[in-house]
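User: Show me a protein chain along with its predicted structure.
Assistant: Here is one chain, sequence first, then structure tokens.
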Amino acid sequence: MTNSAHDPSILRQQYGDGDRLAARQALWRYRSGPALTPTALDLAGLAGPELIVDVGCGRGTYLAELRRRGHGGPLVGLDLSAGMARISAPYGWTAVTDVTALPLRTGVADVVLCMHMLYHVPAVPAAIAELRRVVAPGGTVVVATNSVGHNHEARTVLAGAAEEVTGGPVRTDWDTSRFSIDIARAALAVEFDVVQVHDLTDSFPVPDPDAVLGYLASMPPETVGLREGPLWMRVLELAGERVAARIASHGSFQVTSRAAVLLAR
């Protein structure tokens, strides 16, 4: 059975507009470490005039930050979702495309961003080969990924609620371990001479139950083997009750972020 984390039909539904992604991203505003977007762009070492392509641009977070910084070079946003391409359009030229067949000339990009999306791609080696094709000699591909144990606290609550509601064992399958930090390093090294890893692991308390529940509600019900409907709604209700109870007794809900930024040249 196809994993929901890289099922194209589920991904198109998940990222048809920016709402679900915004709910997931909102959880990370509580992180104790530096924000990921500016950190990743700082690591890229931009000089100013580069042509930057954001593959899997989502809501245009990185393109917007580049515009805010006054980046002088051309910005391109590419995404599998037409909704995401529309949202990102104010920040640069955008198009709908698959990462394994980018509508770009060979060697055209000075910097390629590929942030938190390769674990969604069924054919990861083909995607990385395409990133290598479009980046110019001496250019940089910036990849962000999550790793084993990322947000395991919330996933455990969701799985436990699903088990109680359905009466059977559940394993959450919105899985990012297939492109964990170590796997990402090895996969990128097939195409690139140098791969640098910047581990941004962080653990932080979240005092707002709505932020945690918003994250869980943004997940596809297929994550726990369900479909949209009464059972899924009951799972979310029970998960919300458990999150709220933990925050009431401990003052917060602990969240672990297992993220890294990799620079490939």
